[in-house]
Design brief:
The chain has no helices and nine strands. With about 150 residues, it is mostly beta strands. The strands form two sheets. It has a five-stranded mixed β-sheet, with no helix packed on it. A four-stranded antiparallel β-sheet has the order 2-1-4-7, with no helix packed on it.
């Protein structure tokens, strides 16, 4: 008996600052994030990326990625992608890019990953406001700019 549809497993999901593709097809993740540190709020992240690798499935699927604010109800960003797996021994990688994401509050943000509306993973990403080291230039104003 051949399976016509098997919901895939989420092999991994990583939040990072950038994702780059090499000429040979390799993937480079830049700045993997487990916490976001900033000196002030609000802050705008130039780019926030979510790297998801799916495997052990058969069929066509829709992946949904959501970034949820600390109030646990506000969806900051959401992305949907369709993908297919023809063989359970294969893997599929989705790269979600959220440009110019604004964070307005400290607290624990959540990244949710669903496939066909089934939650596969939800993980926390704390955002903390930190004090600059003594003598450091304020964030957003380059040291020595004189402005």
């Amino acid at each position: 008996m051949n399976a016509t549809r098997i919901l895939p497993d989420l092999q991994c999901s990583l939040l990072c600052e950038d994702i780059r593709l090499e000429a040979n097809g390799g993937i480079i993740l830049v700045g993997v994030l487990d916490v976001i540190r900033t000196q002030q709020l609000p802050v705008i992240a130039h780019k926030v990326c979510v790297f998801n690798r799916w495997t052990a499935g058969v069929g066509s699927f829709t992946e949904t990625v959501r970034v949820i604010a600390p109030d646990q109800t506000t969806v900051l960003r959401s992305s949907e992608m369709k993908f297919a797996l023809q063989d359970p021994a294969r893997a599929w990688t989705n790269l979600n890019v959220f440009p110019q994401m604004q964070f307005t509050a400290s607290g624990v943000y959540q990244v949710e990953v669903l496939v066909d509306d089934v939650m596969r993973l939800r993980y926390p990403v704390p955002l903390v406001v930190v004090q600059p080291p003594p003598g450091a230039a304020p964030q957003g104003k380059p040291e020595g700019s004189g402005k």
